[in-house]
Amino acid sequence: EKIYHRHGQASYVANRGLSNYAEVLPNGFCDALGSLERSDRWLDIGAGEGQAILDYYASQDDPTSPEKCSESGPKAHTVAISIEDRRTNQWRQQAARLGDDRLRYLSGKHLRQYSLEELGKFQLITDVYGGFTYTENLSGFIEKVLSFLEIGGAFYTVLPAVHLEDGT
User: Fold this and answer.
1) What's the whole-number average pLDDT of the chain?
2) Which residues have C-beta within 8 Å of that of residue 69, sequence separation ≥ 6?
3) Is 21 within 8 Å of 128 (Cβ atoms)?
4) What is the C-alpha separation between 125 and 157, in angstroms, rounded?
5) Degrees, nearest 5: CA angle 107-73-130
6) In what order do the strands lie in the sheet with 122-127?
7) Pick from 8-22, 85-99, 148-162: least confident
8) What are phi and psi of 118, to 5 degrees?
């Protein structure tokens, strides 16, 4: 809540691209992303400007795209969630071109406030320093993520500075 209500300061990074995701997420992320089919769905929690999703679609438009994790060809449906609306003009242009059924951006709510009816199920869910990092209820957050995950789907996140009760 403190981060969300900070005004006038950049309190967190909002423009991580797909190459950043490839660097920080566990092995297997790129393969999971590359295996998504046109009818599949990817949810990115804490997406900020949605740059990783934009990079994902860029490889569809440009087969010579240098993105490590994305192959050219038809792409899955994507949903970006951010606590604040950080969409850029680039996002708006791509959304207008592809349509809201392929490229969706939701903001203003915590993950726990979304229902299954609003979001649906996903084959891939990512969270790079998003809700997982900031949650005060880890088990509730994971339970919510898993409720949106298709059987056989994958959830990729970063384990930042996890401390045990004894401080280690």
Assistant:
1) 83
2) 18, 19, 21, 22, 29, 30, 33, 34, 56
3) yes
4) 8
5) 25
6) 103-107, 77-82, 41-45, 122-127, 149-157
7) 8-22
8) -75, -40
Which secondary-structure segment (H or E) carries 154?
Answer: strand 149-157
CA-CA-CA-CA dihedral for 11, 141, 43, 110, to nearest 10: -50
Whole-prediction pTM: 0.83
Helix axes 51-61, 89-98, angle to 10 degrees: 50
Whether the CB-CB separation of 105 and 50 falls below 8 Å is answered with: yes
* C-alpha separations of 43 from 36, 72, 120, 124, 133 in Å: 12, 19, 10, 6, 16
Residue 72's CB is within 10 A of a number of other CB atoms, namely 14
Residue 3 has a pLDDT of: 47
